[in-house]
């Protein structure tokens, strides 16, 4: 039997406006390798004919190699599986519907008429978050379709879900969900579940089919803002994904909500950790507690764990999977619940493991010492989880799992771009509601705000929308996780998202999409981009990243005034340690005729060190606006040396 795999064939820009002509070219190209049109039709899975030219097909390795050598084929890459990267979060961001009402939310008419395209793993149209009651007609400019599929028919589309292709619900409801009252998980996190642009409309596509409608460069050229998750491989450096300069790459942060859960030992000592414990009739009073070590299958074979709470110790850096396996093993062994130690990773067990709690190492040690002292007579009582919100909680903080920079593909482009809430986000899951964590939960928060901005400023480019989001108050907060360091721009980009500030940024850093042509990317960050001939730090981005400063580098930027016509901005310089920084001119004056101003930033190394990134910033300030961009500089003495820090 011949072994085939799914390959993506990229043929660059389409040269015909007629989709049928483009598709015919794909069939002919594939037939020249497979031997017949019939074989080509049987092999091809998708034909990409709108945003660019390309196709996906089942091929052998040798067939893929032959295709890669054909004229007109720019790249052939093996397809890969992509991991899928609410109530309180929107109020935390200042987009409150009532108390007090958000100016941006109402000025933008709740995002009415804006179309949001979401790439997710599926959608549950029956969810109340997609109720179209009170919505007007579908925008006349909509040219999409409601494609039927397994358990999804045309009637599932409405004035909220205006289209679907290969039909995610949690992500979509966070970006554009309708208002739903009294949403909670077992009474936790009670509130209104809604999206950032609750009157925005959503279209769904599988990842491959969505490439054709929202390809990185094609989408940006058409004025569509593309928002991607940074990935969930933190807190390790150089793990950030989706690093192309034309997209907004979003890190995950916490918000001012926690879920304290009290555990009372048999000697009446009460400790508090975090959990999603909803209560259990079998645990309403004191019950036995046993020690299960790593809580693997072998350890929990005995009968002593039945109807007890098991103290597990899979390690302070245990992954979500390890914790899930421990919970499953405890359940198989007949246990009623588990307690385990863990560094603060911002990941709570899901409700399917609702009888579990996590605790810091110190509290775990107290439980372990109690268990060792009382052994067979040791008992414990778990109290149902409470929901606590407000100023008593340090937030925002970077989620430990959020992927970090520097950008390993283009070190001269600072990534991620921004951070948004992505921890314990409550939104639609199938026909109910549940918590999820991840940068894929942070991304729809940014998407929802982008929808509001597009409604408010329909002519703004994707680059213009990119600048105004950040809030530099972030810098005082911890990076989270077991790294125990202050957060820096490789954790959060330009800062934490600030919707009201985004609506009135003062200055923007705009870019002509054609400037991105230097990158010559094959399917954007899904495949490979060539290194541009010009230094990438010369792009007019709202950040500066110099990965190889030996002596001196001068970069230029251009800002456009979108605030009051007569404005004067003064530069506030915060140079990275070990770097001298000069801005010319140091004052920018705008009037009715002068809408844009160009300036240069000269960075000079004053400390001879090898391979250490340091951080600073440049802020332009007038009477009412503060426009700050982050600066990352890596001093080097010799090229091609591994980092020493």
TrEMBL record:
<dbReference type="Pfam" id="PF00082">
    <property type="entry name" value="Peptidase_S8"/>
</dbReference>
<dbReference type="InterPro" id="IPR010259">
    <property type="entry name" value="S8pro/Inhibitor_I9"/>
</dbReference>
<dbReference type="InterPro" id="IPR022398">
    <property type="entry name" value="Peptidase_S8_His-AS"/>
</dbReference>
<keyword id="KW-0645">Protease</keyword>
<keyword id="KW-0378">Hydrolase</keyword>
<dbReference type="InterPro" id="IPR041469">
    <property type="entry name" value="Subtilisin-like_FN3"/>
</dbReference>
<keyword id="KW-0732">Signal</keyword>
<dbReference type="InterPro" id="IPR036852">
    <property type="entry name" value="Peptidase_S8/S53_dom_sf"/>
</dbReference>
<protein>
    <submittedName>
        <fullName>Uncharacterized protein</fullName>
    </submittedName>
</protein>
<dbReference type="Pfam" id="PF05922">
    <property type="entry name" value="Inhibitor_I9"/>
</dbReference>
<dbReference type="InterPro" id="IPR000209">
    <property type="entry name" value="Peptidase_S8/S53_dom"/>
</dbReference>
<comment type="similarity">
    <text>Belongs to the peptidase S8 family.</text>
</comment>
<keyword id="KW-0720">Serine protease</keyword>
<dbReference type="InterPro" id="IPR037045">
    <property type="entry name" value="S8pro/Inhibitor_I9_sf"/>
</dbReference>
<feature type="domain" description="Subtilisin-like protease fibronectin type-III">
    <location>
        <begin position="538"/>
        <end position="633"/>
    </location>
</feature>
<feature type="domain" description="Peptidase S8/S53">
    <location>
        <begin position="201"/>
        <end position="466"/>
    </location>
</feature>
<dbReference type="Pfam" id="PF17766">
    <property type="entry name" value="fn3_6"/>
</dbReference>
<dbReference type="InterPro" id="IPR045051">
    <property type="entry name" value="SBT"/>
</dbReference>
<feature type="domain" description="Inhibitor I9">
    <location>
        <begin position="7"/>
        <end position="84"/>
    </location>
</feature>
<dbReference type="InterPro" id="IPR015500">
    <property type="entry name" value="Peptidase_S8_subtilisin-rel"/>
</dbReference>
<dbReference type="InterPro" id="IPR023828">
    <property type="entry name" value="Peptidase_S8_Ser-AS"/>
</dbReference>
């Amino acid at each position: 039997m011949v072994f085939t795999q799914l390959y993506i064939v990229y043929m660059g820009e389409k040269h015909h406006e007629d989709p049928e002509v483009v598709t015919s070219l794909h069939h002919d190209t594939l037939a020249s390798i497979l031997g017949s049109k019939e074989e080509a039709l049987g092999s091809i899975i998708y034909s990409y004919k709108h945003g660019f030219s390309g196709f996906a097909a089942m091929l052998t390795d040798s067939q893929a190699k032959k295709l890669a050598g054909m004229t007109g084929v720019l790249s052939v890459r093996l397809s890969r599986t992509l991991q899928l990267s609410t109530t309180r979060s929107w109020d935390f961001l200042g987009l409150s519907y009532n108390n007090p009402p958000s100016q941006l939310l109402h000025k933008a008419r709740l995002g009415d008429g804006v179309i949001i395209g979401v790439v997710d793993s599926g959608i549950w149209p029956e969810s109340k978050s997609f109720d179209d009651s009170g919505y007007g007609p579908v925008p006349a400019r909509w040219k999409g379709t409601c494609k039927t599929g397994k358990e999804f028919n045309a009637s599932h589309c409405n004035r909220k879900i205006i289209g679907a292709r290969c039909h995610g619900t949690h992500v979509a409801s966070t970006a554009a969900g309708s208002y739903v009252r009294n949403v909670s998980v077992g009474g936790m996190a009670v509130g209104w579940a809604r999206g950032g642009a609750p009157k925005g409309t959503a279209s769904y596509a599988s990842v491959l089919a969505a490439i054709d409608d929202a390809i990185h460069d094609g989408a940006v050229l058409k004025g569509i803002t593309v928002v991607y998750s940074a990935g969930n491989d933190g807190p390790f450096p150089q793990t950030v994904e989706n690093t192309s300069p034309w997209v907004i790459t979003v890190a995950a942060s916490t918000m001012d909500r926690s879920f304290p859960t009290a555990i009372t030992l048999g000697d009446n000592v009460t400790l508090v950790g975090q959990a999603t414990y909803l209560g259990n009739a079998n645990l309403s009073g004191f019950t036995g507690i046993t020690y299960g070590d790593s809580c693997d299958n072998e350890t929990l074979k005995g009968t002593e764990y039945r109807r007890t709470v098991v103290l597990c110790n899979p390690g302070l850096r245990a992954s979500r999977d390890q914790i899930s396996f421990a919970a499953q093993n405890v359940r198989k062994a007949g246990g009623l619940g588990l307690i385990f130690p863990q560094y603060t990773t911002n990941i709570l067990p899901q409700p399917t493991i609702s009888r579990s709690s996590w605790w810091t190492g110190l509290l775990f040690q107290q439980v372990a010492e109690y268990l060792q002292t009382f052994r067979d007579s040791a008992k414990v009582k778990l109290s149902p989880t409470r929901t606590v919100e407000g100023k008593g909680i340090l937030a925002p903080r970077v989620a430990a799992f959020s992927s970090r920079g520097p950008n390993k593909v283009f070190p001269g482009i600072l990534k991620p771009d921004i951070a948004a809430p992505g921890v314990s986000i409550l939104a639609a899951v199938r026909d109910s509601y549940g918590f999820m964590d991840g940068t894929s939960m942070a991304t729809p928060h940014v998407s929802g705000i982008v929808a509001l901005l597009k409604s408010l400023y329909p002519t703004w480019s994707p680059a213009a929308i990119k600048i105004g989001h950040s809030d530099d108050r972030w810098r005082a907060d911890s990076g989270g996780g077991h790294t125990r360091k202050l957060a820096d721009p490789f954790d959060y980009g330009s800062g934490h998202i600030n919707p009201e500030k985004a609506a009135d940024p003062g200055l923007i850093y705009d870019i002509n999409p054609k400037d991105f042509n230097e990158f010559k990317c094959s399917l954007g960050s899904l495949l490979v981009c060539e290194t541009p001939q010009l230094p990438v730090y010369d792009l007019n981005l709202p950040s500066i990243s110099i990965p190889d400063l030996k002596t001196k580098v001068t970069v230029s930027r251009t800002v456009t005034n979108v605030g009051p016509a007569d404005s004067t901005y003064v530069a506030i310089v915060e140079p990275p340690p070990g770097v001298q920084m000069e801005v010319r001119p140091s004052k920018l004056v705008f009037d009715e005729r002068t809408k844009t101003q160009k300036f240069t930033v000269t960075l000079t190394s004053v400390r001879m060190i090898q391979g250490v990134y340091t951080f600073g910033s440049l802020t332009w300030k007038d009477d009412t606006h503060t426009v700050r961009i982050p600066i990352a500089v890596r001093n080097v003495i010799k090229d091609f040396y591994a980092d020493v820090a």
